[in-house]
Specification:
With 526 residues, this protein is an alpha/beta fold. The protein has 17 helices and 22 strands. The longest helix has 22 residues. The protein binds nicotinamide-adenine-dinucleotide (NAD) and 3-phosphoglyceric acid. It holds the Pfam family 2-Hacid_dh_C.
């Protein structure tokens, strides 16, 4: 039975979905990485929010793990690189909590502008400090968005409703999109110099870490207010504190902290700082959305091979998955055939899709071909998640070509592998029964179905070979299931693909290799 571990607080809707799909669910909340590593080996899927730390050590212990699902957006608590290297798919739910988080950012901006938290606390204490809490209007103020993706663009929309002027720094924001959003695209220095309020909406990456430091703050307008509902590491807190103390920054609203849970922080207690405990995504609606989405995505992946919102592999929709499935088998076989037939370093791989298959989503097929190709070298450490990366790391030059017009076959995949010594191709099709057939090897036509154990022979096309091979196998008790033949030209190179009813013992393979006319013989396993 497929097993999933939920290691952070998730709406019960997630458990319900997993169970309805026949997946066994265990909930263990609040595990430290060591505790998570101790139990993760038992699970096929792991569902998390931001609290669980899915470190390289946790992933190293995750022998069966196929997918990590993040019920939310930021994946900085997951070592995606380590997951990719181990062939574990990482997916998130990029659109489940974006409205809620944008609304929280706007709420924080208003709280800052009108001192709501401090005024609330003072009023509860029976003080009536009207003159202490004079705020500022948002109307006609400039809001600078650092990061204008899903959340940033919703914040822009809401801020425009408040009649603010919105400017955005985001190197990946196209001028057309900026125009659509009605925001002015600016560089970071211009944003810092012009904004009355700055709201951060980028992921935490090596480029964005410590983006708001003393140097950036020095470029800001006096009295700027800063809102961070993205990630703690974007702001250098000591620099922010100094700027708050000097009055350069009039206020800061922080939902996120470099260390969470944040029970101590140099900014806690500062009168001009508003804090919330990473509540950006904490609304009933958002939590329901992300729980449902992550449970559906993970179930679809674990049960049907559908891939949605993955950060480290190509998407496959639930509709595509059944159409791709027979091709996946063919792709796997072609890759595995070429991988087992290749003895020297691979330099170049070309995959051509012809006819019907060319109209499909072929990225997962290419990933499977690479997986099959690399498996003889790397065994179980390679799978379709990490195969493209592994190929790249090995300097294998990959080319994909699609020809939607049909050739000799209604549909065809051709794989060509170039090594330092030679270039070889293998092509396969699907017949009406959806079963894969190999139809061409090294330019020689053949019609073969690949079984679990195959003998692949290249020989000189001379009389007597087939009889001698059959006798040799028969004399050694090896039953032939199917026998497919092809040749380049009369008397030229010929190939035989023989399905046998079990593994070929090494001594029999050597005897086949020693037969006259045999150029090369290999035992292949599928
Ligand atoms: N506080 C919360 O509870 C909460 C909730 C959801 C998301 N988040 C955080 O908000 C972040 C943004 O979420 P999103 O859905 O808008 O993501 P997104 O990917 O849609 O948008 C991020 C934007 O940042 C931009 N960006 C990347 N590097 C940049 C750089 N160096 N400088 C400027 N811009 C850069 C990208 O181009 C993109 O447009 C998430 O990564 C997550 O960390 C926090
Ligand atoms: O990236 C996110 O989606 C937010 O930071 C939400 O985190 P949470 O799921 O832990 O509330």
């Amino acid at each position: 039975m497929v097993k999933v571990l939920i290691s952070d607080e998730l709406s019960p809707a997630a458990v319900k979905i997993f169970q309805e799909r026949g997946i066994d669910v265990t909930e263990k909340i609040g595990l430290k990485p060591k505790e998570l590593a101790a139990i993760i080996g038992d699970f096929d899927g792991l569902a998390v929010r931001s609290a669980s730390k899915v470190t390289a050590d946790v992933l190293a212990a995750a022998a069966k793990l196929k997918v990590v699902g993040r019920a939310g957006i930021g994946v900085d608590n997951i070592d995606v690189k380590a997951a990719t290297a181990r062939g574990i798919c990482v997916m998130n739910t990029p659109f489940g909590n974006n409205i809620t988080t944008a609304e929280h950012s706007v709420a924080m901006m208003m709280a800052l502008a009108r001192h709501i938290p401090e005024a609330n606390s003072s009023t509860h204490q029976g003080k009536w400090e009207k003159s202490r809490f004079v705020g500022v209007e948002l109307y006609a103020k400039t809001l600078g968005l650092v990061g204008c993706g899903n959340i940033g663009s919703i914040v822009a929309d809401r801020a425009q409703g408040l009649k603010m002027k919105v400017i955005a720094y985001d190197p990946f924001l196209s001028p057309e999109r900026a125009l659509d959003l009605g925001v002015e695209k600016v560089d970071l220095d211009a944003l810092l110099a012009r904004a009355d309020f700055i709201s951060l909406h980028t992921p935490l990456t090596d480029q964005t870490r410590n983006l708001i430091d003393a140097a950036a703050l020095a470029k800001c307008r006096d009295g700027v207010r800063i809102i961070n509902c993205a990630r703690g590491g974007l702001v250098v807190e000591a620099d922010l504190k100094a700027a708050l103390d000097s009055g350069k920054v009039a206020g800061a609203a922080l939902d996120v902290f470099p260390v969470e849970p944040a029970t101590e922080n140099i900014l806690f207690g500062h009168p001009n700082v508003v804090c919330t405990p990473h509540l950006g995504a904490s609304s009933t609606e958002a939590q329901l959305n992300v729980a449902i989405q992550v449970a559906e995505q993970m179930s679809d992946f674990l049960l049907h091979g559908a891939v949605t919102n993955a950060l480290n592999m190509a998407s496959v929709t639930v509709e595509e998955a059944p159409k791709l499935r027979p091709y996946m088998r063919l792709a796997d076989q072609l890759g595995a055939f070429a991988g087992q037939a290749t003895e020297t370093g691979i330099r170049k791989v070309t995959v051509e899709y012809e006819g019907h298959v060319a109209s499909l989503n072929t990225r997962p097929l290419t990933a499977l071909i690479l997986q099959g190709l690399l498996k003889p070298l790397l065994a179980d450490s390679v799978n379709m998640v990490n195969a493209p990366l592994v190929a790249k790391e090995r300097n294998i030059d990959l080319t994909e070509a699609k020809h939607e017009r049909e050739g000799d076959y209604h549909t065809l995949i051709r794989l060509t592998v170039e090594t330092e010594r030679w270039s070889r191709s293998i092509a396969g099709t699907l017949f009406a029964d959806q079963r894969p057939r190999v139809v061409d090897i090294k330019g020689i036509k053949i019609d073969a179905e690949l079984g679990p154990h195959m003998l692949y022979v290249t020989n000189d096309d001379k009389p007597g070979f087939i009889g001698r091979l059959g006798t040799l196998l028969g004399d050694n008790g090896i039953n032939i299931a199917t026998f497919a033949l092809g040749r380049a030209a009369q008397g030229g190179d010929a190939i035989a693909l023989v399905e046998i009813d079990g593994p070929l013992p090494p001594e029999i393979l050597r005897a086949v290799q020693a037969l006259p006319q045999v150029q090369q013989a290999k035992a292949l396993v599928f």
